[in-house]
Amino acid sequence: MPASFDYLIHRAFFQWGLLAHRFRLALLIAPILLTVFLSAGFIYIKQQTTIDPQYVFSPKSAPWRYERDVLSQHWPLNEQEFWPGKSYDYNGYIDIIAAGKFDRERGRPNMLSASYLNELERINQYIIHNLTISVTHNGKMYEVGYTDLCMSYDWKCYLNDHITMLMPKNKWADFRGKLAELANDIITNEEGHFDYVRAVRLTYNVREEKVGNVSYLWRKKVATYLADTNNPASGLIEFGMYHNESLPEGLQQVADSLTPKFAVTCTILFAFCGLSCVVLLNHNGFFAPDWVRSKPSIALAGIGVDDMFIMSAAWHRTNPDLSVARRLAETLAEAAVAISITSITDMLSFGIGCVTTLPSVQLFCMYTFAGITFTYLYQLTFFTAVMAYAGEWESHGLHAVTLKPAIDPRDADTLFKRLFMVGSAPRKDSLQRTDKIAPTYRIPTPIIQITSPKGITKAPPLSTKNNTLSIMEKINDAFVRLESKMDHSDQGLSAHHDRETFISKIFREVYGPFLLTESTKKAVLFIYLIYISFAILGCSMVEEGLNPKFLVRESFYLNKFYVLMDETFWREGLQMQVVVNSPPDFFNHFDRKKFQAMLDEFENTEFTMKHNATMLWLDAYERKLDEESKQLKIPLPKTNEEWYERCREWLITAGGRRLWEKDVVWGKNSSDPETYNHLYAFRFQLGLRNYRTPTDHVRSAQLMRAIAAKYSQFNVTTFHEYYPFVDQYIELKPALIRNCILALISMLIVSFIMIPNYGAAFAIAGAICSIDVGVVGYMTFWGVRLESVSMITVIMSIGFAVDLSAHIGYAYVKAHGDRKKKAIEALETIGWPVFLGAFSTVVGILVLVTVDAYIVQIFFKTIFLVIVFSMMHGLIFLPVLLTFVLPHAKDRDAEHEIPETVCKKDDSANRQPIKDKEELECARIDESSLAEIDLSDPVEKEQHTDSRVMDAGEAESKPVEETESNQKAINNNSFDDEIQSAENVSATKDGNLEESGQEHLKRSQGKNDAVNILPTEPGLRLLHSKIEKHESRAEMCSETENKKRDDFSHRRKSQPSEQDKRKMLEVESFQEAERLAAISDNKSGVSV
């Protein structure tokens, strides 16, 4: 059967740990050099910087792009033929809203009051004539103002003459244009009479061609003048201002306000991560930091990386007596799936976000995807190298900060030394000279050594049968040339220590048992039902779109502009462009009636004002024909050609030229009257109302586009300056649903691959769905709308959700025991690192609360909800759920692990304590016994053997437990004791054999359950007999296990081919040992 992914990744990471330790210096330096090299890309940062909000916040294929192109094709911007109200392109455009200062009792004052109009005119004249900037040209200084930079019509600037039109009628002069686009809340009846104005708009349009930089400086100066709160421009009027650089400037100000917050965030995270890497040392009841085992260097290297906590926890679970290479390999092997799930799922989540149609989301996901990819690579290289060096410092007993030998706690005579200088003892030198176990990733091969007075020689490797190599063995052979040799001192040591930490004790003895009580489970179920109910309710109430005022800080001048717009012109007074690309034949009564029906439908919606707010040249022309017919007795046009010819003459020569000439497109070939007087396209403006919220924007745009599509024969196009935001709002929900579905499918596939249990994978997918529903639902209650920023964070929530949930699910599957033990073991193993990783993220974003920008607040709120709900699911809901739905979850890849089955004696329920090890039906021979080599002093060996025999006897006096660990310990002691006894007897044969054997016999006979050792037999014969016993036991083990496999179905099943292979190797090993022992002389000693 092919090896599982779980097995492959553990094996690969174990090998990588050995290799990384060997080449730690290269892995430390190479990422730094790569970072320095790639940082050269910052020289292109200005070229890559995008400041166009319309590009960033709107889909690339948004309809507004086509709609604006239609306008630009028919009416391209001409800076020498500009007329306000007809512009659709806001380059060089300044829009100012002037309103009287708000009074809580009376609200906004009437701008028709003489005092307000005079003040407004004063401000207008100051901006036009007095607000200048200094420009140096050809060595001379010039003062440049609005009249030098303005767009013009007939070489005249637009000077906001409508202010005068709002004054008493005797000051109106010749102005007769409609005011719908100039003032708000002015129309009170169909005749256009008004007596109240809430706000007035002023416009200043400056040229961009050739003088764009100067125009930009002038616009900046106007903004500074009107936004100055220390020296306000007026005591009566407040102003809101917008120009084409305002929104980019506001967004940049938000980014700049975050920069100093990063320093605070980094300081907090450094402190938090540093404290989390401190290990406490208990010396006679006094707790102090263990500066040998503490790893502040790891905290510095892994700052901001949640997986740092998982790898750090895995390191501390390894046996400190192991070599650094082995500890690093064990650490990476244990953390392999956890850190891979974290990185791969995040990369998939943001990779899917890269294919969205929203450029803001796409750009963010692209950069984040690259960041996560490099984080994963650097974690396996740079961070691993740092761990290797930190491990070396720990192995040599060096202080983690000063890198000098730490003080033994017993030698710390002052409080300062106890707190800042003490540490654990360095790794024992004796362990570095003793081989005890073979590498865990290979099937162990016995080593036979023959000791003679002349020295020590090693026999050739034992022969094995030429079996077909499995895929994993081939991979193992490929690593042989690269892998680092295992430290011989690792042999005989377990990979993990049994020391208990305070946190693990809390999870195992307090939190875990409490969470899994029946009453707590019911409470958890009740809490979850409440949680998911409110989440679904919130999802049904979610609102889409982002008010533009929330894109900038509250203190930025653009915020005031959008506040005044919300109070005034968004309620009533905006204008929308309507383009008729295939005009009807207006001389034809049927076509004229069809067009009028379309116009009536446009004007009579909840988002448009009535006909008196529509600016259409056709109405003025038809009134002109009626006036000529009634007053001048000029007959009406009798043919189509005459109608259009008189229309064009009226637009060119009559008074309507300025207002209407830019609304029609005529033929340009004057030599051909038929095409010259042909109307190719025209446009008109509709007055808008009820345009306050993003939802209103979306509904209005959809309605206007639907009406235009209804009259397809006219090829109608509609456009408004807020359409770019509208198209973003329209795309948000479909894009979010599409991305979430794709991400969930991807997460499920990853879970199936990396989580060795399909049920657990489905449970994790369910947790992800639950978290996403909770985030979207509860952000509605928190005042967060669905827009690009919240969509980004929802995409991020998928990655966070699968991180925390997958860690718990994987640990639950890999744990042993019943459902309660598995859940507690999962929480004990991974609960604390998961909590630290999530909590560090919350700590990192807390500073965002202090930024007075709504988009930053949105980011904080959604990320906070993501982390909190992910922790709730990972540490509360999911463990309880797994105990319900997967009470007997098993690792589907368990057959790839080394079998640990131990056959037990088939006795009755009232079994008697075992009196002798011979009563065991069979026992698996552990690899640690096969590779143990000890050539120590015979006297010390005898004493050590005696103590081990006593321990083995005490273990056998107890009933055989059903747990594998106890049986394994008994079997290991059994074989170790017998081999050790044989070594003692053989070692004392020359001169002292008889005496030592008798003493040993007496001690053995004093215990009823001791191993029956014959001290008078020569050592080689005893070894021969013990080997035969174990050969028979190995055979009995296989037979007994086959008989009892059904009775012990709850135990882990072993792969028959792997077990047979191991048994065959063990038997051949003993036969080889017997052969070598037989050729030894009487002066030789043999130890296996």
Automatic annotation (TrEMBL):
Biased composition (Basic and acidic residues): 938-961, 1025-1049
InterPro entries recorded: Patched_domain-protein, PTHD_SSD, SSD
Top-level taxonomic group: Eukaryota
Any GO BP: molting cycle, collagen and cuticulin-based cuticle
Major site of localization recorded for this protein: membrane
Keyword vocabulary terms for this entry: Cell membrane, Glycoprotein, Membrane, Transmembrane, Transmembrane helix
Domain SSD: 296-389
Secretion signal, residue range per the UniProt entry: none
UniProt region (Disordered), positions on chain: 933-1066
Subcellular location: Cell membrane
Cellular component, GO annotation: cytoplasmic vesicle membrane; plasma membrane
Topology in membrane: Multi-pass membrane protein
SUPFAM superfamilies associated with the record: Multidrug efflux transporter AcrB transmembrane domain (SSF82866)
Keyword check for Transmembrane helix: yes
Stretches that traverse the bilayer: 25-45, 262-286, 367-390, 523-542, 736-755, 761-782, 789-810, 830-851, 863-886
Family: Belongs to the patched family.
Protein name stated in the entry: Patched domain-containing protein 3
